[in-house]
Amino acid sequence: MGRDLHSQWAKTRAWIAFGANLPSVVGTPLETLRAAVKQLRDAGVTVTAVSRVYETPCFPAGAGPDYVNFVAEVQSADAPEELLQTLHRIEARFGRVRKLRWAGRSIDLDLLAVEQEIRPDVVSVRAWITLPFVEQSVRAPDQLILPHPRIQDRAFMLIPFADLAADWRHPILDKTVREMLDARPTDEKSEIKLMPEVEILTD
C-alpha cells in the first residue's frame, strides 16, 4: 500500500520557492540556498530545473538586507505533506526559527504548488487567500495550504515561478502564473533585480 501511495506522486511536478537574506552556519544567503538544494536532492527529491536568481528588497522596507530568491521545479515520490516536512527539516538544519512573521531569515523554503493539488480544501485555501493584510502579519497556517495562499500577491515568487512554469494555472483563481504576474504593480516588479551569471545546480 505504501509503495502504491508513493508511486502516485513519483512523476508529479512541484515548485518550491527558496529565499534568504541572513547568513547561516554555511555562509552567505546564496551559499545557504545552494546547500539547501543539495540537501533536498540528498533527501531523494529530484530537482528538474531551477529558475534564474533574483535580489528582492526586504519587507517592510529597511528591515534588513535584500533577499536572494529563486524557484526550483522538483519531482518527489512523497505526498505533498511529506515534502513539506522535508523542507522544514532542511530549514531547521540551517538555523531557521519560526517566531516572527516576515522577519529576516537564514533560509525560507515555501512549497508553492503541486500540479493542481488543493490542500486541505477549496474553502480553507480561499480563506487564507482573502485573509486581511493586517492578519497576514500575525497568523500562519498550522497545516499545509496548497497552492501557497500568497502566490498571487508576491512578485518575488511569481517572477522566478514564471521562468519555469509561466502557464501553470491556479486551480482556484483560474489564472496562470503569467496572468498573476501581469497583474502585479509595475513598481513592485521593477524592484526585483536579476542576479546575472549565478548558478545553483553545480553538478
Provide structural commentary:
By secondary structure, the chain is of the alpha+beta class. The chain has a single domain (2-193), classed as Alpha-Beta Plaits. It is 33% helix and 17% strand. The protein is built from 8 helices and 6 strands; from the N terminus they run αβαβββαβαααααβ. The chain has helices at residues 2-7, 29-42, 80-93, 122-129, 133-136, 155-165, 177-182, 186-190, and strands at 13-20, 46-50, 54-56, 67-75, 108-114, 193-194. Strands 1, 2, 3, 4, 5 and 6 form a 6-stranded antiparallel beta sheet that branches. The protein is globular. The protein starts with a helix and ends in a 9-residue tail after the last strand. 33% of the residues are buried. The model has no long low-confidence stretch (mean pLDDT 91).
Q: Nutshell version of this structure?
A:
With 203 residues, the chain is α+β, with helices and mostly antiparallel strands. The chain has eight helices and six strands.
List the helices and strands and how they pair.
Layout: H1 2-7, E1 13-20, H2 29-42, E2 46-50, E3 54-56, E4 67-75, H3 80-93, E5 108-114, H4 122-129, H5 133-136, H6 155-165, H7 177-182, H8 186-190, E6 193-194
Antiparallel strand pairs: 1-4, 1-5, 2-4, 3-4, 3-6
